[in-house]
Structure formats: structure tokens, C-alpha cells
Amino acid sequence: MSSFVEEMRWRGMVHDVMPGTEELLEKEQVSGYIGFDPTADSLGVGNLVQIMTLVHFQRAGHKPIALVGGATGMVGDPSGKSQERNLLDLQTLEENLQKQKTQLEKFLDFHSESNAAEIVNNYDWFREFSFLGFIREVGKHMSINYMLAKDSVKSRLEQGMSFTEFSYQLIQGYDFHHLWKEKGVKLQMGGSDQWGNITTGTELIRRMSGGEAFALTTPLIKKSDGTKFGKSEGGNIWLAPEKTSPYKFYQFWLNAADEDAGGFLRIFSLKNRKEIEDLEKEHEQAPHLRILQKALAEEVTERVHGQDALDKAIRSSQILFGKATEEMLRELNTEELLDIFEGVPQFEVSRSFLSEGLPIIELLAERTQIFSSKGEARKMLQANGVALNKIKAAPDQTVSPSDLLNERLLLVQKGKKNYFLITFN
Q: Per-residue pLDDT for 84 more than 50?
């Protein structure tokens, strides 16, 4: 077995390790788990750090377990949160769990003969646990002083914290005890904000059963500009294509700052150290080619969405930022075109104007405000500065229904970089 902790260290993915963890992992095959919050119907790129932790754990010969918190999702983890979460009903949580399972299966090997990944749901062992039973069997082993000392609790005491959230660390701690007892799990991993909850679990295992367990956490990822990783101007970047299109997902990674790209490649790629260092050298010599960003965007997009979606995302990028053809535009459906050109100015024009052919100058200067006057439009057309669907337009040209993409859209390019999208209704 390769060294899991050593692999994680050079990738910059180790924040805290409990003493004895590394020795345990070198000595035997270990079952380890990470918990995932099921309060959304998709995992986001913020979850990818923990998913990749499990991937590296499995590649090092150990057995990864993903715990989806059907029970803890009904309570809400206070770690890193400034206010209490809304609690979800059981049916919504179950639907979210199933969608997240499908996403995890794209990364982990659930069919290995030696160390197949598993998914467990803590609702399965909490559903029959009564409140009185829990405080008798579990609560008595933890002092209030111990629980109050946790950073996730201390940071919330001044503004108030419900008993529901206060109890979260006990519930997560019991998860670890249950998995230690029933599945021989000796290691829990997670983000650095989970250290308090994880060590509560190791302490509960010691106090309840006299056992020993271990902990490892990863750093919280921040971008060089100080903004939170995993978000864009439009909000969270999700793994589900219906929530974040493959094109936008690809663009998220492609737009990584040079200062971040090398670190992101170490965390989110399976490329080895030499491959990454070679790419960094290439990038230094020609940063304008964005070699690191392209390698990162292609690998992660292909893993999450598949090769076909990646190919389409690359073509879409070429349409917006590089050389493209009308044929490439016509390969995309309306939704994909609207997605690519979401940020460009858009106009709506009545389809009735096309019945006898709409003069292009009238379209550009009167039916839309792409040009402020017919004279300005004519001058730009005469200079070959206007294209319709990537084809240069002439001043005497008319627009007809056959020119439209998917029978309703027309892409206008003014100069090299200015795009406009016209929808005919």
C-alpha cells in the first residue's frame, strides 16, 4: 500500500492528524469515513475536497466509507455557520441522499474485491434510538465542559445556539462509535472545521468502549483573492448538470487564477507529482496559454460529466472565446446556446418581421439597439465588422427564418469581442 498521508501532504491536503494515524495506515488496511451533508439535492465543488480525500484513501489500498447524514441532516451542523439551518423533512432528505449517492459513484470504486467503497446513512441506526435511550447510553459519557470547549460551540454562544445544534457533536460522535463497533472503522476524516466533532467521536469510542480511533482533517480551501472557493457570481457550483451546466462547470475551473491553479490541480486532479510539476513549468513559460487551468478543467469536467459533455463544453468555449463556425453553433440546442451567452446583451424581436425578409440594417439599428443609428450599422457592415452566426454579414443582406439557430435565435457579433443574442418570438 502507498502512503496515504504522504500523498495527501504533498498535495497540500493535510491540516491536522491525530498522533498514531500515520503509523496505523502504514501497518494495515484501514476503514475510514467522511460525512456528507444531505441538505441539498446535489453535492457541490466544495465537497470535492472530501470526495478526493476518499479517492486517495482508496487508491492507497484502504476502504473508504461515505456517510450521508440522513439523521444529522435533520439536525444541522453548526460548524462554520453563523446561524441555524432550516431543518428538512424525511422525504426531501431521502431524495437528496439518492442523488448524492449517484454523484459519489462517479469517483469511488464500489466493486473492488479488496477495498470496495461503501455508502451508509446514519438514519439507519438513529431511527429506532429514543431520546431517553440516547442520553442514557451516549450523553452520560460527555461532560458539558468538554462540549462547550469546542470551537464550533464557542463561536456561537454569544448570539445563541439551540439545544438541537448543541447536540450535533454528540450525534456525529456516536456515528463514529457505531461505525467503529459495527464496521471496524478506525479513522474519520473531514474539513478542518470538523476537527472538534471528529475528536468527540474518538473520545466517545474511548469512554464508551475503551477503544482507539483516529482523525485527519484537510484545510479549508480559499481562493487567492480571499473569496470563498466553490462559488461564482451566480452562486454555488454544483455537480448536478441541471443546477450547473457542464459548460459553466468547465468555465469555473478554466477561470481559476494563476495563483490558485497549481494548488487546485494538486487537490482536484489525480495527476502525479511529476506530471503536475511539469505542467507548472510549461505554464510559467507561457502563462497566457492557461495550461494549468485547461488541464484542471478538462480532468474534473470529464470525471463529473463525462467525455461528451466535456467535448461540448470545449466547443462552447471556442464559440465564445475562440474561432468557431456556424456548424458548431448549429450543433447546440437552445438551452446550451442561452447558457453560453447568458452574460451578453439580449434582445427580443417579433417573428412577424421575418415574413418578407428583415433588412439587416433595420434589425441592428431599429429592432434592436446593437447600433445607435443606421449609418453606424452600415459603416461597420461595409468594414466586414459584423457577423451573423459567425458568418460575415453584408450591408444589403436580409434576415429570414432559415438564418435562425433552432428556429428562434440569432447570434450577432460586432467587432471581435462584442456579442448580442436576438430571440425571435
A: no
